[in-house]
Design brief:
alpha/beta, 303 residues, 10 helices, eight-stranded mixed beta sheet
Length: 303
């Protein structure tokens, strides 16, 4: 297993431990990832009862009755349009594009492990409403795009099989396209969960365009080195997210060694995926505060 595959498998097990997935559904999803019945059962047993609170909720789950009608940034959000552009080797990449009328900068939005969902499109629109044109690349483009999958778990499994180098190459192509659309402006990158991990991986992959980044509760790559990155980083975490928080010290150490501006925000009384207002772990207070901090960060380092 690659580190990202392991992350997804453990996330499924944690969802089961926290009561978000039945045992049958968790075993089905682990099977889609390629785990045998014995290995899948052992993983669930290892997590059951721990209450780790570190899984990603299904992006198609219904909001709770307490979910406010206007999550942070939604009131001013602008519409997104579907676009395609050339990816690595000329292969087309699908994306959602949201244009700010007078962009202060551009933001690459990196989706969770369910692919390019309506929630991620809405985040791109929220950035545009705040003055930052945004592009959310569909990392399942080579497989027909997220819309080709009727089963979100199958989309997750397919994402897990894409080599990390390919995912990073597609994100770099997205940054190139974003720069073309906002010429002369500074770029940022914001990713969530799986996408937060990819944001860290992008920053650790060598010199890249982002002047700033705000990864949300993403695992830091093993032996990640940020010395080639010039990005000012705001790392967003959740106090109850023990599994992802385990890699936070490595992220903090790498940020300190990079010498770039950085800050860590840990949302109190919040769990993994607290920003996703379509999921069961949405926390309106934490999401609102995180959104404020992200916009302040980009206001300082993008314009």
């Amino acid at each position: 297993m690659t580190p990202l595959q392991r992350y997804i498998a453990e996330e499924i097990a944690a969802d089961h431990a926290d009561g978000l997935l039945t045992r049958r559904e968790a075993l089905r999803r682990l099977g889609l990832l390629g785990l045998g019945a014995t290995a899948a059962a052992a993983l669930l047993a290892a997590c059951t009862g721990t209450g780790t609170g570190t899984g990603t909720e299904s992006s198609d789950s219904a909001p709770s009755p307490a979910t406010p009608s206007t999550p942070p940034g939604s009131a001013a959000a602008l519409p997104t349009t579907a676009v395609t552009f050339d990816g690595p080797g000329g292969a087309p990449l699908q994306a959602a594009w949201a244009a700010a009328p007078q962009p202060r900068g551009g933001v690459l939005v990196v989706h969770e492990n369910k692919g390019l969902t309506d929630h991620i499109r809405s985040v791109a629109g929220r950035f545009a409403g705040a003055g930052y044109s945004a592009l959310a690349v569909d990392l399942l483009s080579a497989h027909g795009g997220t819309s080709a999958f009727t089963d979100p778990a199958a989309a997750t499994a397919e994402l897990s099989r894409i080599p990390p180098d390919q995912l990073v190459a597609d994100l770099r192509a997205g940054l190139d396209e974003l720069q073309r659309r906002v010429p002369g402006k500074k770029l940022g990158a914001t990713g969530f969960c799986f996408g937060g991990g990819l944001t860290w991986l992008l920053l650790a992959s060598g010199p890249s365009p982002p002047a700033a980044a705000t990864p949300f509760y993403g695992p830091f790559p093993d032996n990640g080195d940020l010395s080639a990155s010039k990005a000012a980083v705001l790392g967003v975490y959740a106090a109850a997210d023990a599994r992802v928080n385990a890699s936070r010290p490595a992220a903090e150490a790498a940020l300190a060694r990079s010498g770039n501006p950085h800050q860590i925000f840990t949302a109190p009384d919040a769990d993994h995926a607290f920003f996703n207002d379509t999921g069961q772990r949405y926390n309106a207070t934490a999401a609102t505060e995180a959104w404020r901090r992200v916009l302040d960060w980009y206001g300082t380092y993008l314009g």
